[in-house]
Amino acid sequence: MDIETLILGAGAAGLFCAGRAGPGVVVLDHAARPAEKVRISGGGRCNFTNLGTRPESFLSGNRHFAKSALASYTAQDFLGLVEAHRIPWHEKTLGQLFCDRSSKDIVNLLLAEAGKAEAEIRLDTAIGEVGHDGSRFTVGTGRGTLRARRLVVATGGKSIPKMGATGLAYRIAERFGLAVTDTRPALVPFTFGEGRFAELAGVSVPVAARTWGPGFAEAMLFTHRGLSGPAMLQVSSYWREGEEVTVELAPGTDWAAALRQGRKAAPKQALRTFLGQRLPARLADHLAAEMELSGTLAGLSEARIEALARALSDWRLKPTGTEGYRTAEVTLGGVDTAGLDSRTMEAKAVPGLHFIGECVDVTGWLGGYNFQWAWASADAAGRAI
Ligand code: FDA
């Protein structure tokens, strides 16, 4: 059977593209249910966009590539659709928009839009050989080979193989001669040596954290395996093996001034108590032990104050690694944008072949940016089809 447009992947980008592309679209997915990542996203409430979306919030080999699609389909556009579907939502923090009820509302929106466009969604369909027979794209499935005039690849990245991530998009890109940049887990917790923070597991603390990239002032969470929480997930997208992560505790605190002031006002106060007033108790205990902080504020020399202030505002931590694709929210890198038209997501050298969503080398920060990229890139391709 000849199909007008075949979309591979019934996730966020694939379903949204089906809704924008109009009749004649067939969507294939090997999963039993569509948009599983949307369903589990945002702790079950789906952080479906970010009102502060701007190109600077994305990592890519070409920082200009995402501009066109993000400008053509904005966070406000998606919000308009959410409201048209009467989905209650709220802004949590930093422009992040979540469903009031459940992420299933967004899955239903995607299915309703695809249904309105008369797209056919075929689940439980394994995808085999993908090629081109000279006039049509060909896709082998367990139930025979499909032929299509256009092929949209929306099979996501490598994150969370347990949820069906396969990296298929990269293999298709290479099969058609497109370059694929190095891929790595991003928005992923850090691991540290055995038991490094075990006694702190569950403690959350506001920090400002960075590697060589931008700084993120958000929460940091200690886990049995290492460090997580929004600040660490954000930083992980910029981190490379062997690098340190710099953490400022109680961001904005002038620790040297606070210590001097404390020494003057409460000289008999124990250092551990001083820290406990500004940091969670378990973290204060940990730091007091690690920095060998005994005695009172009165005993602090100027040099010791300076050293302590540096340690607290510039805490250097060296992760041993990350939790990898097993828990990474997204995959950094992907189909090289140099081979794609930024207005249509079409491969420059292969007319009719489009790549959208996470498989493209455009990766957003934590906070709804990755879904906004899925919607915007899907809209760009959908309008071009
Ligand atoms: P997506 O992964 O959604 O879809 C790909 C589809 O292709 C899947 O249905 C898969 O089954 C199918 N597929 C893959 N390989 C295949 C093969 N070989 N054959 C057939 N089908 C195949 N982002 C955000 O902005 N806000 C948030 O709140 C969250 N929260 C979040 C939580 C968690 C736990 C994760 C893992 C991720 C997030 N994200 C997020 C990221 C977000 O989920 C991600 O960026 C988008 O789902 C990417 O959309 P895509 O459609 O590109 O891939």
TrEMBL record:
SUPFAM superfamilies: FAD/NAD(P)-binding domain, HI0933 insert domain-like. Signal peptide: none annotated. InterPro entries: BaiN-like, BaiN-like_dom_sf, FAD/NAD-bd_sf, RsdA/BaiN/AoA(So)-like_dom, RsdA/BaiN/AoA(So)_Rossmann. Residues 184-330 form the RsdA/BaiN/AoA(So)-like insert domain. It comes from the Bacteria. The keyword Flavoprotein applies. Residues 4-383 form the RsdA/BaiN/AoA(So)-like Rossmann fold-like domain. Its cofactor is FAD. The keyword Flavoprotein applies. Keywords: FAD, Flavoprotein. It holds the Pfam family HI0933_like. PANTHER family: OS12G0638800 PROTEIN (PTHR42887:SF2). NCBIfam families: aminoacetone oxidase family FAD-binding enzyme. This is NAD(P)/FAD-dependent oxidoreductase. It comes from Rubellimicrobium rubrum.
